[in-house]
């Protein structure tokens, strides 16, 4: 069958879904990471961040003509793969064949980011509230402001699709743009990465409000939760305290010295002295015995003479 007006023939939804599933399976088999957009039900987005992205997208007349077809494509599972990086989105969309989509988004100007931080300072109870979209009206207005908010304007977006439709936004590009909103439902931190801003700076702006709230028993966020939310490591180890000059150092208990070992010369001298004393005593005892024996013999001689 030939093409009409340069376009490929229409491919039914069921066939596109089958093609998408086949492509995903093939890439997974090759060990490639694939992140398809899966829509459950009719609603494409359900959270504050996803809705805010789509509202911003639909507010520009530049895109309105192709958005309805894009919604249809993203709902029926045609976005086979979607990856969001700093300043860039890469995607694969299943249509008459598999098309490659690339979208580049300009980084958020530092002046606009500074305004957002100043407007949010002290007005965010915790980062959990921020990412869940539980925000005050002032914060919502700051992040969704069309001039200086977090969401991109048409002039900050450059789009390309490998399909033969040369319109500024084809249905495949529109499907990917809605897919981004769906992805922000589950991973709102990707918006900060996409716009090239450091979410740690927003953490620093949100924290000053915590001590005042903590005094009244309001829940506070632990650093482990912050790491889980933004995929970062936060060092919450207490800083080392400077040494206090008034603090006295506790002296270690004195260890009694073991008695010094007796020198060999001293031992020998003492032994010789003891031996001499023993010999002297023995000599005296021998002399006494000899003297007694002599006296006995003398007495015996006298007795024999008298007889």
Per-chain topology:
Blueprint: H1 13-29, H2 48-58, H3 67-75, E1 79-85, E2 88-94, E3 98-105, H4 110-120, H5 127-132, H6 137-144, E4 157-161, H7 171-186, H8 189-194, H9 199-206, H10 209-215, H11 223-230, H12 264-306
Antiparallel strand pairs: 1-2, 2-3, 3-4
Helix pairs in contact: 2-7, 3-7, 4-6
Fold and architecture overview:
It is a single chain. With 307 residues, this protein is of the alpha+beta class. The protein has three domains: 8-106 and 150-196, no CATH class; 109-149 and 198-233, no CATH class; 278-307. 49% of the residues lie in helices and 9% in strands. The protein has twelve helices and four strands; from the N terminus they run αααβββαααβαααααα. It has helices at residues 13-29, 48-58, 67-75, 110-120, 127-132, 137-144, 171-186, 189-194, 199-206, 209-215, 223-230, 264-306, and strands at 79-85, 88-94, 98-105, 157-161. A four-stranded antiparallel sheet has the order 1-2-3-4. The chain is elongated and about 150 Å long. The N and C termini lie far apart (175 Å). Residues 1-5, 208-223 and 225-240 have low confidence and may be disordered.
């Amino acid at each position: 069958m030939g093409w009409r007006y340069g376009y490929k023939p229409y491919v039914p939804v069921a066939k596109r879904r089958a093609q998408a599933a086949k492509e995903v399976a093939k890439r997974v088999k090759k060990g490639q990471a694939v992140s398809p957009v899966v829509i459950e039900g009719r609603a494409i987005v359900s959270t504050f961040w996803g809705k805010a992205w789509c509202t911003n997208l639909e507010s520009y007349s530049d895109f309105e003509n192709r958005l309805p077809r894009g919604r249809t494509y993203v709902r029926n599972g045609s976005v086979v793969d979607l990856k969001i990086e700093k300043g860039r989105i890469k995607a694969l969309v299943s249509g008459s064949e598999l098309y490659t989509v690339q979208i580049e988004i300009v980084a958020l100007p530092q002046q606009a980011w500074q305004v957002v931080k100043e407007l949010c300072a002290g007005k965010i109870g915790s980062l959990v509230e921020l990412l869940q979209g539980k925000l005050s009206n002032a914060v919502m207005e700051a992040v969704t402001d069309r001039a200086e908010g977090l969401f991109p304007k048409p002039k900050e977006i450059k789009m390309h699709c490998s399909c033969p439709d040369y319109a500024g936004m084809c249905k495949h590009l529109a499907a990917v743009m809605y897919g981004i909103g769906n992805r922000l439902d589950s991973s709102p931190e990707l918006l900060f990465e996409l716009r090239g801003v450091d979410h740690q700076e927003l953490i620093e702006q949100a924290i000053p409000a915590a001590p005042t709230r903590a005094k009244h028993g309001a829940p506070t966020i632990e650093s482990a939760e912050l790491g889980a939310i933004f995929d970062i490591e936060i060092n919450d180890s207490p800083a080392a305290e400077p040494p206090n000059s008034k603090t006295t150092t506790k002296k270690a208990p004195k260890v009694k010295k073991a008695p010094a070992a007796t020198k060999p010369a001293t031992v020998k001298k003492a032994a010789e002295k003891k031996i001499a004393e023993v010999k002297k005593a023995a000599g005296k005892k021998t002399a006494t015995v000899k003297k007694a024996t002599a006296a006995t013999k003398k007495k015996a001689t006298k007795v024999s003479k008298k007889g």
